[in-house]
């Protein structure tokens, strides 16, 4: 057989039944990505005779004698205009979808460009919100040019990996070749709750190519949590690498290790597992009831489980003042119960990794993670290995959103590598991502609120029930966070909280962008709006009268043991003003019939910029002989933009340009420690470590030059890649060579402990139209104002806000994991789970408050997580304003809206 790939002939024959995607990757074309293997996401797009196709759907033999173009061959030996357009517009974040997106965009004719919603419906981006992709198609440049040395911070500089991303050269987890690689496939439980009585491996081991079948009998008897935090006590110890009790449909039962995926899959089918079926419970209310099946009967407070016999993994209760009395004496009150659904992270790169033991006996794990250092520590503990004998690292990560602040595959990878002595690979399918990793916590939130006649809040009460699923990863911290900033942003003398996280026999919930706040804000912000309506006060004014301001305590019961949160900067009222002015500004009137009802709604959010109890980051920077710098940080890049901002911070502190900063990151072999890129800490904490390291090196540079000049270091400054003192000037390259002659290299380190913490603010506004006859919802205007302190990179920060709004709109309008009465997920693929595509996402106007944070690096603070938080709440308020009906369950799908609309307005 003959194939032409990127203009070159290939004679390799594909295997029987092999798809074009895997065939191309085996030939080294790693720009062809796997996002779904079902033709739903477009990450595997290639051009076949010039037409874009999903290569996962094309049998490889059908491409014989046809011209195949992958992203690596699009520009020939140079850069294709569309690749350059994506660079100019920075039309990517994590970049995992970018190769496929560029190939589709490059193939569009002028007619197709007039309807991008239809033209791009086969390509999903989970990160950007699509505006920057449209900018690329429109030929817009979003990048600042000619940034002077020392002037990088605060400018819209491009991502350092951009050229590799658009050309398909950026290396993600599986974009590598390893000799002797074995493949892992997992046998998963078909039952929601069962004890494994026996496993017969005979037939599986007889499959040619199978090298091992690993079960609960092969794993260390060690309990841990898949959640990764700096402090292990934040999560319950309730998980084993492989267990003899399964607690949800999809839990891993055994791992088959074989020479090929096909052999491993065949062996999985032949493994004979005998189960003793146990009673199961999938409803959290029923799980707490007397006589309910106990899911973790042997767990106690020593395992950090609050009340195992009632399936309660975590709970919190407290009251300030007297809420009942305050409600009884309020001029107006509101009470309601709200429910939020289970949502999937849907990062386009699924969980997975490779592991091997090198000649020095070091266990190497290359994985798609947000927390390489914490994962190394966990593997060291579980397998009783010295820390210096475990290395965990990632190259570029294809999206995270909190879902990769977990250890779902690295333990199995380590086990298989240690047992077989061979390099191993485990890559989850899209279905496994749905049924066996983690989700957002579904919650039931009951709220009571009261206000006096002047619109001042008199009482706030939250009663929260969180469904953590079969395991308690992140159950406590998410629960505590959900009831913290959601009401501590409001001044109110009487507050009460009762919140419980409950085990059920369903897929576990875990960390997800916003970390509990999106769920409770739907209820809290609805209550604020309902009080305002009763009093005849605008939604903006009632919030202005009640939000905390500098000097006010930020309180939610029970009292926190952590008292390190401060107003590093305060821009909340600015954000309210910005959104109000933007929403009042003239806009084109929609051409809609009388069946459409118009409304507006807002919601606000406050978020602590770092998790409590410690978040550590180390950074190191060294001067090279050519005058450039090596910057080493531990934080991972998965579209959060930390790689860009770390270079900006270092370049500004060292009076150089970002192209002189060579970044090494997310590898435990580099030394130091980094808690991880989560909890809004990638810039706020790790960025401070980078700033400290760069400023320490700046002092070393001045001291070294002063020693050479025999002058006072205080008389020296850094200017444009040199040390200057009066008329004397020594370039960094000259200085490096000077100290090198003495056998030295100039370098410095920096550290940040994540305390004190600051707060970030966001306000979201929507104008919507709701069709009273069908329930259809249109978003006519979307505005978000953000207090991000000094904005480190305006283009990038705007993209984080847009992406957060787009992702949150998916959850607000249609995303929902549907679980049947047995605990089985019935829509475990993209085509049955509606991810936002280009046509679904409105353009969001992003406005920044003018503040400077006294705690964050160079005045900046976090803005990758918080934009998500107020979206569902604001949309719910807009729908209520339009229809006069308060809808209390997300997502706000047409079929959810229709019954109430029909009851009120008829047909």
TrEMBL record:
Q: One of this protein's Pfam families, by short name?
A: MoCoBD_1
| Annotated ranges, domain 2Fe-2S ferredoxin-type | 1-74
Q: Which domain of life is it from?
A: Bacteria
Q: Which PROSITE patterns match?
A: 2FE2S_FER_1 (PS00197), 2FE2S_FER_2 (PS51085)
Keyword list (alphabetical) reads: Iron, Metal-binding, Oxidoreductase
Tell me yes or no: is DNA damage among this UniProt entry's keywords.
no
Q: Does the keyword Oxidoreductase apply?
A: yes
Under the heading CDD domains, the entry gives: fer2
Which PANTHER family does the annotation name?
A: XANTHINE DEHYDROGENASE, XANTHINE DEHYDROGENASE SUBUNIT D-RELATED
The similarity annotation says: Belongs to the xanthine dehydrogenase family.
Supply the name of the protein. Answer: Dehydrogenase
The major lineage groups are: Bacteria, Pseudomonadati, Pseudomonadota, Alphaproteobacteria, Hyphomicrobiales
